[in-house]
Structures are given as C-alpha cells and as structure tokens.
Amino acid sequence: MPPKLLDDHVRFRFTGAGDVVSVHLDCDPVIPGERELTRVEGTWELALPRPDLQRIEYRFTVARTVADAAVTETILDPDNPVTVETAFGSRSVMEMPGYAVPSWLSAPAVPGGFTPMILEGETTHEVPVTVWEPDGTAGQALPLLLVHDGPEYDQLASITQFSAAKIASGELPPHRVALAHPVLRDAWYSGSPKYLRTIAQQGLWRLHEHAPISGPVVVMGASLGGLTALLVGMLDADEIGGVFSQSGSFFQARHDGQESSYKYFGRISRRVQEIIDTREATRPLRIGLTCGSLEENAANNRDMAAALRRAGHHVTHVEVPDLHNYTAWRDALDPHLTQVLRDLWGDAQG
C-alpha cells in the first residue's frame, strides 16, 4: 500500500516475504522521525511525523536472510507507482494532498533546437555548453540565461521546457538558454577563480560570437552551482545583470560544520565570507534565491540574502516546502525565476 497521510503522521508500509528481517526508511536525513519500520502481522509499518513538506522522496532499505546469509538492498517502494528520477537514481515519492506539478510542464511551448559549443579559457579542461534557442531566431540578438549543471537542469528540472512555455505564453521574451556541462564539478563549482573567469570573460565572449546577446545576462544554478552562479555575478562583468540561485551552498563554519571535511570547504567559506562582509555593491544585481525551509542550506541562504540586500542588491529570497532536489528546484522556477527574468528583460510585448 502506498504511503498515506493520517492526521499528524505519514504511514509507510512494506509487505515482505518471510525472509525479511528488517526494513528502514531511506529519505533525506533532515526529515525528523524514526526510520525503522516495525513488523505488524506480516506487514512492516512506520508512522513518520508529518514534515512541513509537499513531497517526500524515499526508498526502503531491506535486510533479508538468504541461505543463512544476510543480504541488504535499497529498493523503491513496490506498492507505490509514483517515482521520480534524481541526480542519484530513482526514488519513490509521497505527494501530500494539494501538491501539483507546475502547469507550464503541459502548457503550449515554442519549438526550439540545441547547438553544442566549447568554451575555452583558463581551465585545464574545455567547458562544453549546449545552447537552446527558439526556432527561427538564429543570428538574432536575444537575452541569455546561463545555467550551471545545465544537462541535469534540463533532464531533471525541464529548464528549456520552462523557457519554451514562458516564451509561448508571452510572459518572457524570446531568449536563449546556455546549458553548461559540469566536467570537473567539485573543482569548478567551489569558487575556482580560473573557472569563474572562463565563464564570465572568454565564455560570454564566445557565446556572443555564436549569437548576439541583448540585455543583461542571467546566471543560475543549484547547490554548488547556485554558489557558482552568484560568484560569477560578483565578478566585474558588466554583461551580467542577474543571478538565480537555488539551495546555494553558501558554506559558513558556524552553520555547516557537517561539510567541514569537504575538500573545498575552506575556499568556499572564504569566498562566502567575502560577500557577506561587503557593505556596498559597486554593481547592484537582481538576485533571486530559493531554498527548502528544512534544508541544511536554509540558514546560510538566509544570511546570504540579508548580506546581499545590505550591500544594495535587489534580492528576493523564498523558502519552499521541499528539500535539496531537482523537483524542488523545478517547482520553484515559476514564479520566482520568471520574476527575475521579467524584471531584467520585460515580457514578450515589452
């Protein structure tokens, strides 16, 4: 039986064969509550206190005895047909009453095509980028949205579908979406000066050579990509006018001790502190931040939003009832990214 919301808790059930010796709920550790299911007349059950979330992504970790040997596997919920693809594989999903997928996913959309490119600069490896543009706009000057973790954002959060639907509705003007591939993700997306300069200098010039850029460039990303989007925006690049960061990894020692063993923690926390300590922006940006209210990154996103406002940037900061995953980031694109882009680019008529 799929999970069910009962008053103040979510009931998970797993029906296993006689060889099952234990079942645990595998879900985000920030969700409070026990994880071990209890056997009740041949069925394993767990009453999880209802978290302040619209969705729960989960699996079951099942231990069995097979031929006197212990075997453990982590599996999808066999009784729940609702699943989602994530950056770490498939997950079963419990959707709370009232949750709905964004309407733009099924809305009319302008057709478009993809063009692969290579950005060369200071990095030892080239930066592959795939550019999406609406059909019939080749060579035209259009605004540009540059997306870190671009292929994952498109596959798991439908970013080009978002753009195509918003262009079709007239909410946004025709624009291009540059999907940057994370070849050396940890090294590049952790405040690497060479990567940041490659994107903001030679990279934007190469993209401009491919097709003219009109209006301010907007850079976006999630998690480490959200940090990187902000750091790119902080560079002295007049072309960049906006940043959209989702669940940005703005690590600080006082909030993020659990990340302190991460190889690039020191570099990230220093760059973050430099931004927080800045009292006046020389080039104010339009910045949108979204983050799950229960996420580990929630506190450092609050600090970052306050610091950016204090420095003079135009900042919107929204906490959403989901966690650190691409579905949460997809669901927050509208209206939050829409508004950032409209503020900078206007609409199709404007």
Secondary structure layout:
Elements: E1 4-6, E2 9-15, E3 20-27, E4 38-40, E5 43-49, E6 55-66, E7 69-75, E8 83-86, E9 89-95, E10 112-119, E11 127-134, E12 144-147, H1 150-157, H2 159-169, E13 176-180, H3 185-188, H4 193-210, E14 217-222, H5 224-234, E15 240-246, H6 265-277, E16 286-292, H7 298-310, E17 314-320, H8 326-331, H9 333-345
Parallel strand pairs: 12-13, 12-14, 14-15, 15-16, 16-17
Antiparallel strand pairs: 1-2, 2-5, 3-6, 4-5, 6-7, 6-9, 8-9, 10-11, 11-13
Helix pairs in contact: 4-5, 6-7
What would you say the CATH architecture of the largest domain is? 3-Layer(aba) Sandwich
Can you identify the CATH superfamily of the largest domain? Alpha/Beta hydrolase fold, catalytic domain
Based on CA atoms alone, the radius of gyration comes out at: 22 Å
What string, H for helix and E for strand, traces the elements in order?
Answer: EEEEEEEEEEEEHHEHHEHEHEHEHH
**SS strand fraction:** 25-35%
Total strand segments: 17
CATH class term of the largest domain: Alpha Beta
Instruction: Report the mean per-residue pLDDT as an integer.
Output: 96
Largest sheet: 8 strands, mixed
Contiguous helical run count:
9
Indicate the overall shape.
globular
Numbering strands along the chain, what is their spatial order in the largest sheet?
10-11-13-12-14-15-16-17
Query: What percent of the residues sit in helical stretches (DSSP H or I)?
Result: 25-40%
> Kindly, what is the distance between the CA atoms of the first and last residues, rounded to a whole number of angstroms?
51 Å
**Low-pLDDT stretches:** none
Number of domains: 2
CATH topology group of the largest domain = Rossmann fold
Summing up helix and strand content along with how strands pair, one would put the structural category as alpha/beta
